[in-house]
Design a protein that fits this description.
207 residues, mainly beta, Porin, twelve-stranded antiparallel β-barrel, 1 helix, 12 strands, 58% strand
Length: 207
């Protein structure tokens, strides 16, 4: 499917779906995480953020294709661009996770950025670390999250590189299907200015 159309098709699917899937607190504000989207579940997101972070308004569709593979597509509006990403689970045993894949393959000319990331996930605490290849350099990925319960998560993450950020935020599962994730981004360079970010996500089963 054409990347830009995938998001619109997903939004239509929300209207046609008979029942929502059970949402979980997943993902962090800035970095990709090593846990994959459950098989057959589609998450549709509307993301708004300050321009220093990236495209101010984006739609995202993320789908678990198999137990080991997920794919995601972003549709940005200013500029108009489509961005692809995919993850493959190498290890998913007990609390240990190891994932590879690529992110940020954009129609605006950005090449795929390969990554390798591990995680240690317990019932409440999640710790993750890895690296992503951006151009000719490697950038660190670090994240920590604490799930108080199935409704609330506190989260912090960091990506190396002067164009990236340290973030602090939380995830709120408003219902079993709808979650909200606001965060503050602190720039790694310059005056370390703060920028705002929020994403709304709706999850539903396709099969």
């Amino acid at each position: 499917m054409i990347p830009g159309l995938a998001c619109y098709a997903g939004l239509i699917a929300v209207l046609l779906a008979p029942a929502p899937a059970g949402a979980t607190t997943k993902g962090l504000s800035q970095i990709v995480t090593p846990d994959l989207q459950p098989v057959g579940q589609l998450s549709l997101s509307l993301q708004a953020q300050a321009r220093p972070i990236g495209n101010p308004y984006e739609l995202q569709a993320e789908l678990g294709l198999t137990k080991w593979i997920e794919a995601a597509v972003f549709q940005g509006f200013s500029p108009d661009e489509q961005v692809l990403g995919s993850e493959i689970a190498l290890v998913d045993h007990g609390p240990y996770l190891l994932t590879t894949g690529f992110i940020n393959w954009s129609t605006s000319g950005v090449a795929p950025q390969p990554l390798l990331e591990g995680g240690y996930y317990t019932e409440h605490e999640k710790v993750m670390a890895g690296a992503v290849r951006v151009g000719n350099r490697d950038e660190a990925l670090l994240g920590w999250a604490y799930d108080f319960n199935s409704t609330w998560r506190l989260q912090f993450d960091y990506q190396g590189g002067k164009e990236n950020f340290v973030t602090a935020g939380f995830t709120w599962n408003v219902t079993r299907a709808l979650q909200v994730n606001p965060a503050v981004y602190i720039a790694n360079h310059g005056s370390h200015g703060a920028s705002g970010y929020i994403v709304f996500t709706y999850t539903l089963p396709l099969w």
